[in-house]
Amino acid sequence: MAMSARSKSRPATSSKYPDFIRNASAAEKKRVYTEVMKMAAARQNATLRAAIAAGVASGTGKSADAVFNRLEMKYRKRAVKRAV
Questions:
Q1: For 39-81, how does the pLDDT look when each residue is reduced to its tens digit (9 = 90+)?
Q2: Domain span at residue 51?
Q3: Which of 65, 49, 68, 46 is nearest to 57 (CA)?
Q4: Has residue 33 been placed in a domain?
Q5: pLDDT for residue 15
Q6: Per the domain annotation, does 35 fall within a domain?
Q7: Total structural domains in the chain?
Q8: Is residue 76 part of a domain?
Q9: Which residues of 14-40 are buried (b: 16+ CB within 10 A; e: fewer)?
Q10: In angstroms, what CA-CA distances link 55 with 45, 50, 58, 67, 80?
């Protein structure tokens, strides 16, 4: 019987992650997961802080009413032009 290409074995590659998943205790996995989540949250918080600082540094904002009124007028004008 002929072997299909899928059943041929590939050379094993070494990786620490699968070994860790196979061999670590539940407590160790939980500790690593918790640490990874803390690091991810810290990176996200730093990104948010930088975005907030950039927004604050960009100057005084506009009121939402002024922005929405301008947009409403803009799209009403477009609607009138298309209707004609």
A1: 999 999 999 999 999 999 999 989 999 999 999 999 999 999 8
A2: 16-58
A3: 49
A4: yes
A5: 84
A6: yes
A7: 1
A8: no
A9: eeeeeeeeeeeeeeeeeeeeeeeeeee
A10: 15, 9, 5, 17, 36
